[in-house]
Amino acid sequence: MSALRFTGAQILLGGLCPVAAQIELDAPRPAGVISVDVDLVNVLCGVRDKNGTYVKGLRKEDFEVRQDGKLQPLTHFASEVDSPMTVALMLDVSGSVASIIGVEKAAVRAFWPRSCARATSRCWWVSPN
């Protein structure tokens, strides 16, 4: 009977020992800088005037791209004023936002017709509630 107790104690202690003796295989590394060499970087932008109206008719010559202060060549340029969009709009209408639901609805009324009226755009209205 004492042999069984001893075996039970060994099993219990044997089960606890691996926790104390674990080896950290993937030690955390300090954050670093990731550097890659690329041939082309896509830069998207929208330009507005002092009244907030989008500026149309801009050309390649109207832009400069600099890296560390050094002027970089613009090898590709496209002005896509009416480019298609894909939008999935989720609106929280739960009780937790009851006090601001009017603001949310006003924002949707302002955004939806201007952004999703294009024939090339795809838009969805999703309500999680």
Question: How would you sum up this structure, described in words?
Answer:
Helix content is 27%, strand content 12%. The strands form two sheets. A two-stranded antiparallel sheet has the order 1-2. The N and C termini lie far apart (62 Å). The N terminus is likely disordered.
DSSP summary, beta strand count = 4
Q: What topology, given as strand order, has the largest sheet? A: 1-2
- The best one-word shape is extended
Which structural class is indicated by helix and strand composition? alpha+beta
Alpha-carbon distance between the two ends: 62 Å
Question: Which bin fits the share of residues in helices?
Answer: 25-40%
**Oligomer category:** single chain
- Give the overall pLDDT as a whole number: 76
Regions with little confidence, pLDDT below 50 for 5+ residues: 1-17
The largest sheet, given as strand count, sense and whether it forms a barrel, is: 2 strands, antiparallel
Task: Kindly list the characteristics that best describe this protein.
extended; disordered N terminus; two-stranded parallel ribbon; two-stranded antiparallel ribbon; 2 helices; alpha+beta
